[in-house]
Structure formats: C-alpha cells, structure tokens
Amino acid sequence: MNEKNELQDPRMARALCRFEVVSKYRALNPRRGLKRKLLEKLASEVWRGPDGEPMQVSAETIRVWARRYKRSGLQGLMDKERPRRGVEVLSEEQKELICAMKREVPQRSLDRIIKIAEETKLVEREVLRRSTVHRVLQARGLSQLGGKMPDKQDLDRFEAEYPNDLWQSDMLNGLWLPDPEQAGKVRRTKLYAFLDDHSRLVLDGRWDFNEDLPYLELVLRRSLQKYGVPRRAYYDNGKVYRSNHMKQIIAELDIYRIIHTQPYRPEGHGKIEALNRFIRSSFLSELSASNITTLDELNEAFAAWVDLEYNNRVHGETGETPRARWERGIENVRFADEEKLRQAFLWQETRTTDKTGVFSLCGIRYQVGPGYGRRKLQVRYDPEALHEVEVWSKGAFLQRVKPLSVSAHRRPKANNEEPEKKVPVVNYLAHLVDKRRAEGLVEPSPKKLKEQALERREQNTRQIITLLDDKLDEGVVDSANVRKFMNSYGPIDTDLAEIALDEMLQSAAPKDLHVSVYLAAIRDAVSGS
Which domain holds residue 117? Predict the structure, then answer.
C-alpha cells in the first residue's frame, strides 16, 4: 500500500524521470573537458515525462540534477514539498514590516528579506515564503528589485584544483563616508579583498580611503598570516598590482608567479568580479539601513558579514560553504615562517649617512650608532610604522633605530554639529556585528597587535637580564643599559646568548666588566650565527 502511494506521488514520478536522465550522464562518466559536450548531447535527446509525454531538458538543468543527485541521492531530485500558505497567514504588522524592509533597502531580494527577518527574529522561521513575500510587495507596488547595477556576464568556466592553488584580488569602489581629516567633507571608500579560487573563501578584506600599495599589502599580509601561501596569484592590471615591491614579495615567499588579466577583458577575473557583485547587492546595499560613519565601523561590519554570512553560505556552484571547502583540502596548504613573512613585506631603500650617522627617510630623520658615519646602508621599514626602522649593511642586520625628531601632527577640528540620525527598521549589519562579538570572532585591532608585539619583546628583554644576572657578578647588570641595547638589537635568541656568554667566561674573561662588553660579545655572536 505504501509502495503504491509512493508511486502515485507526483513528486516521486518526476524524480524518477529526472533520474533516468542523470543515470545516463553518470554512466558515461565524462572526463574533465568533455562534460559540456556530453551535457549538450543529452539535452538534444527527447525523454519520456512523468505522464508519458515527450520532454526535453537543457544542458544546465541536467548539470544541476546531477549535482543534486550526487549530494542527496533520489531525494535530491524530488521537488521540495511546501505547505500551501497564502498572504492570509501573515498579520498586518508582518506585512507592513516586509514593505518597510523593501522601502528601506530597495536592493533587498525576496530571499534576503526572508533571511534578515528570520535572523533578527522579527518573524518565526518557515512562516515566510518567496511567493507570499512577492504577493505582499506586489500588492503595494514594491515588487521590483531597485537599484540593480548592470555588469557583464562572466565568461569561461575554470576552477583551481585545491585550496591556495590560486588566489584572486581586485579593488572595489564603495560608499562615501565623512572625512575624519576635513570637517564637512566626504571621501569614497575602497575595498581590497583576496579570494581563494577553489573554495571561493574570502581570505581577508579591508576598506580604506586610499588605494595605494601599502593598503593592498596589508590585506595580502593578513591573508597570508591566516590562510598560508598560495601557489599562484591572479590580479588585474592596476598599477599597485604590478609594482616592483609586489613582485619582490611574491618572489621571497616562493609564490609561483603573478598572472594578470588580459587588457580590455576583465571577465577572465570572473570569481572576484562575482564576489564584487555580491558585495554590492548584499553588503553595500545594507549600509543605507545602518548608522555606519567611520572606517573602523565599516571594517568591523564587513568582517562580521564575511565570517557569518558569506564564508558560511552554501555556494551555488560548489554546493558547499567556502569555509568547509577550504578546510577540506587543508593538507595542501603551505604556511610561511612568520619572520620570513615580516621581512618580505618590509620596504627597502638605500641611504647614505652624514658624518654623525644621521639619514633621512620619508621626511623623518634617524641616527645610527657610532662608527657608521658617511656609510651607505640599507634601510628596511614598514611605511605604516615609521616609529621604528631596521638598518642593514651587506645583507647583515645592524640595529633598529627610532626617529631622531618627531614632527607633531595638527589635530583635526572637532565637528560639534550632531547630524540627525535615522533609526533603521532593520539594521542587519549591526545584528551581524553583535553576533560576531558574542561568538568571540572579533579580530584584534592593530593597536592590540602592537601591544602583543611589545609584550613579546619585553619578555625577551627580561630573559636576557635574568641570564646576565645569573652569570655575572652582583651589581654589574644595569637594566637601563640592557633595555637600550635590546631596543636596538633585540629580540635575541636566549640560547645563543647563553652560549656566547659561557664561551666568553670560559676564556678567562672577568665577571665584573661593564655590562656593555658582554652585550657586545652577545651581539657579535648572534649576528655571526
């Protein structure tokens, strides 16, 4: 009886007809590169429908059916059984809420309205249906998708074989925000983002007012720190992507090579272009319903959107979430040594000191130790952290120096006028930020990372002081001199320092010399290693 009812189920009948098409495709098991031809051949055939009528199916539909069967078996070929619910199931308050959400952000699609309403608990799950929402909007003349941005369709189907096989990057123009340096002015934000081609995982992204090379390199560095090193990189033809320093980073980290899009044919950059379209429709459109006015707020909201929505959303092409697909192939991922990574991103310039050991960099003067007057030296630095630079000579590290004089920056004028804030009906980005904070996913701020780096250096300094205290006579160790030395030459490997100190003392050196003598011996031994 159950079998008879099952066969009489029109959903099962349609599924069995679809399986007949899918089974032929799977039985032939085409190799890569031949799948499209086979799909087109099957699409040209005439099949028998559920009621015996002739039926033809497009190649794309066959491909979707095959993917659904592979993922869920016969159940995946069945139409979803949905309860018949009409507009009457919604209260007037719920209908008005749907309309208000659409008026607030016209770019919101039916699916996004349903998702946001359920995520923010304004409507119980499984209550809203696309057809119901469409009828509500249509009755009030709000059914059109507003503000849709035209774009070219992507060409060519291509996918990297495994995670970190290929990364793509591009720059996207964003919204206008108040300029923190000029009251009453606004500036347009820019987004640099990196995407893994195989998994479609957004590795990192950052909004800023500038599109210069340091901002691109910051996003690349954070991507490398979190997700390892790619085999290849695919960029557009922008000036920053073709810079010599970008080529140097690629070479030092042993990345195979940079691939650039063909001129006048950005469609080859398909996946990052598709990501940009999705960012426009799903993230930028929501900004009109938020109270974001600063870059920090914008970047925190974007990080929450990436972590909670994009990277954990099932991708229509792969059938998996980007994060799950990337983690499934993690055995192929190569991570870079942190110190090698830091060195790769330092800018390098040659400077000649004057007779007092002073040189100028980016309009700031620095002074090296005695003995380096009128010398040609290599300076390695982070353009975003000029409070400290490294000085090298003939490939060997000499010391770390700070500015000789620091120029003061004029504080921007305070804007005492409080603009009237509009309270959004649904601030979805604020909801994502709160959820990300609650789940402990907030990334440390640059200030916090700096504090952590200073703490590591302080810990190393204390270890060296303790080592000297243990090995030398009482009263020899001057902590102030040791700290000054470590600020210039640290961090120093404590094991190597102990070996150097032991060798010096074993050669009959006294234990009561000035501490600078022992520090110089440690420096020479460590630099020579």
Answer: 92-139
Six-digit token string for 237: 């033809």
Is residue 406 within a helix (H) or strand (E), and if so which, with residue range? Answer: none
Segment holding 189, helix H or strand E = strand 186-196
Q: Name the E strands within 369-467.
A: 376-381, 389-393, 396-401
> End-to-end alpha-carbon separation of the chain, Å?
83
Residue 296 tokens, joined: 């920090």
pTM of the model: 0.56
**Which of residues 77, 105, 123 is at a domain's end?**
77
Cα 6 to Cα 154: distance, rounded to the nearest angstrom = 42
Three-class secondary structure of residue 166 per DSSP: strand
**Domains of the chain: total:** 5
Please say whether the beta carbons of 54 and 23 come within 8 A: no
Residue 410 maps to a domain: no
Which pLDDT tens digits describe the chain residue by residue (529 residues)?
444 444 457 888 888 888 888 888 888 888 877 888 888 888 888 888 888 888 888 988 988 888 888 888 888 888 876 554 555 667 788 888 888 888 888 888 888 888 888 888 888 887 788 888 888 888 877 876 544 444 444 444 578 888 999 999 888 999 899 998 888 899 999 999 999 999 999 999 999 998 888 888 889 998 988 888 998 888 776 777 878 888 888 888 888 766 766 554 444 457 888 899 999 989 998 888 888 999 999 999 999 999 999 999 898 888 899 999 988 888 778 888 888 888 888 888 899 999 889 999 988 999 998 888 899 999 998 887 888 999 998 888 888 999 986 455 554 555 555 556 666 777 888 888 888 888 776 555 545 656 677 788 889 899 999 989 888 888 888 889 889 888 888 788 888 888 888 888 888 888 888 888 888 888 888 776 5
486, 388 in Cβ contact below 8 A? no
Distance CA 11, CA 436 (A): 40
Q: Quick check: is 415 in a domain?
A: no
The CATH number that applies at residue 291 is: 3.30.420.10
